[in-house]
Amino acid sequence: MKYIIYIFLVFGVLTACKSKKEAAVAAVEVKVPLWVSSRPNNGFKYVGIGVSDKGKGGNYQIDAKKNALYDLSSEIKVNISSNSVLYTVQNNNNFNENFNSLINLTNTDNIEGYQLVDSYENEKQYWVYYQLDKAEYANQKAQKKQQIISKATNLINLSFNDEKNKDFSSCLKKRIQAFGVLTPYLSEEISFDAAQTNGIKTVFDLTAIIQQQLQSISLVQQKNLPVLKPYQLTYAPIVYGLELKTKTPLQNFPFIVTSDEEKIKISEKTTTNNNGELQLKVNYVEPINQTAAFALSPDISSLMGSDSLGRAGITVLKQFIQTPSLKVQAKVNNIYIFVSASEKNFGKPTNLNLVEAIISQKFNGQEVQIVSKPADADYIIESVAETQEDISSDILESNYKIKLAALVISLQLKNNVTQEVIFKTQVNDVYGYANNLEKAGMNAYSNPKLNTKLSEALFFLKRKILVY
Fold it and tell me: Which of 252, 324, 330, 456 has the fewest beta carbons under 10 Å from its own?
């Protein structure tokens, strides 16, 4: 009987412990908040709810907060004012989408005064709930907007100081910076105190003066067009002068260079120097024998460099201004060659012109033109051909009663502009046989080896003129 009572007591204790454990587990379980499944609707608050998966690793709490703030910023609608800059391009859907994305990202970075309302997590996810008072946000935004307008006003004033000092690049840079800081508010009406900004009242006035400044760039007239030759190893830069309407040289200003001519390869970026000279670098030219055109466009992106204020507004700014292109030209001409050939047989002219004919044949092509006057030539090929009795001639005469003549051709390539001799060689191993020296010399000119040996020498000479 005692044992039975003891068993019941042990069973009762175990049952009581199990009940307490179940109660403790039940107490740990957290009820899922209503805002997780049903988004709150508050007329006086902006709501932001974010969630992050715990299994992705990293700091899931920070990720959830970022998502919540982006959600909160998405609730802040961008209302386009009819007097705003954005209103003028609101029919451009692609631009509107990009601009609204920019506004949302800017809001996410600049939102202040938000409060954490609640958080919830389970084994897989972490949720967070933020809210922002609408009246407080509107007040903060109004204050920030005024600060931004004041900053833009200061930049505009400084730009006019640069203009007085004839610092074109710095002046334009500050005006683009002023537009850049205003970018988050381009959907709203923005107005300046004209007395503080030299007459600029709106963002439209600002973009107009930027446009006017870019259009003040002009080319210095050239007396003669630059000339390019095809297939050169290197090219000297083509130099163009750029100035402002005030006839002041445009100093240290970047440009983008483009060309529709596929047979000419150029470097796409360049900058004027302190004298307003722009050097257009040419990398490769094929024969076209005509005038080639290039477009020089102000490179405002390079002008701003790594400046975050300016670069932020360039994409938007290009919707309101046209970056003017200046057209420049250069002639692409054939390479002009004059051939000076002398052919003698033991001091007497042969009147054959065989060497000159071979040279002209080897240089006959679309990139090269043989000219009749030395003054018109880029290069001059000088050829002196002469026969002489070979050292073995006496032995041959003693044994076989024949003479041996050797034909020697001296070749020289000269730059006709600098008068520099850039290539020199000699053609040997061309012989002629006969019973006398005069006939032997003439036979040397008719030796098939003449064409072979001379062509080999001309190949290396031509490489000094053309590089395919």
Answer: 456
Which one is the CATH code of 217-303+319-332: 2.40.160.210, 2.60.40.10, 1.10.630.10, 3.40.50.360?
2.60.40.10
pLDDT at 13 exceeding the cut of 50: no
What is the fold of 335-462? Double Stranded RNA Binding Domain (3.30.160)
User: Which tens digits make up the pLDDT trace of 302-351?
Assistant: 999 887 766 667 888 887 888 889 999 999 999 999 999 999 999 999 99
Provide the pLDDT confidence category of residue 3 given band limits of 50, 70 and 90. very low
Residue 358 above 50 pLDDT? yes
Could you tell me which residue, 10 or 51, shows the higher pLDDT? 51
Every domain of the chain and the residues it spans:
32-212, 217-303+319-332, 335-462
What's the whole-model pTM score?
0.74
Across-strand partners of 336? Answer: 369
Instruction: Read off the pLDDT of each residue in 263-277 and give the average, rounded to a whole number.
Output: 96
